[in-house]
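Morning!

As promised:
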Amino acid sequence: MGVEAYMAVAGVLFALGIVCIISRRNILYVLMGVEMILNAANINFVAFNRFGNGGMEGRMFAIFVIILAAAEAAIALAIVLNVFHLFQSVRPSEADILRD
Amino acid sequence: MDPKLQQSAFYAVLALAVLAAIGGGLVTHGAEGMAFGLFASFTLGGSVMCIWERSVVRSAFSLMATFMGVAGLFVLLGHDFLAMAQILIYVGGILALLLFGVMLTPPDLTERKLTRVGGAVVFVFGGAGLVWNHVQNATRSLAVLPPEELTEATTQDRAIGLAFLHPEQYVVAFELAAFLLTVALVAAVYIARRRTEDFEPEEVA
């Protein structure tokens, strides 16, 4: 399998992540879509690392992306819980004020 | 259309697509193609299921297939350390966090609208189709090797560890990542805590 096959999978995964974000009315789906998008980026990083010049920049990037995704998930979940507490709703469009 | 029938039709189509991907990979590229088809269909099938399902719990669990498929793709690319980290952090950590979020918020089974999902699919994939020509032009200039010229993939855990701690490579980024994780976890606890004014004063008997 060449690099194009991995790029195709990553591209479709990225597009599905965006579909997940814009088509569902629940903050948790936005989080899931973001995870899909980060995974798609990671597939590209690792594939180009494998099919590139033999360096290791791609995989180090992928490791840091995974670390950032972990931090992002923790913060985002805390924000989701707070938004639900404040608005009694998990619809992104209803969270329209910063504080009351 | 009856929701039950719709659900069965969706799963039938999904299963057929997975079988077609595995079979197509086997026919065109042998064993490696079969493994690629399996992992790629896990990745994409999981995310399609995540978008399709009404219940957030099912969506979160189908995301596990996506993460596992991506880990499998990492193994196919010869990066076993990343595959392990992927399973450990995504499946073990992020998915568990998402499930906590699912448990702490109320379910809403009427929220999925197939027209909206279909519109989003047309919009996103149509937009991707519009720029497809430019993408192909851009990828033609990439300096990538064809698969038959690749050297054997070797495990590079030791090289990764050394690169993390080498002063001329990634030690600053490594320490910053550690600092960032600490700050993020403390901040998450701070944001998500219950404030004292939220608690009802207890009845004094």
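The radius of gyration of chain B is 23 Å.

Hope this helps with the figure draft.
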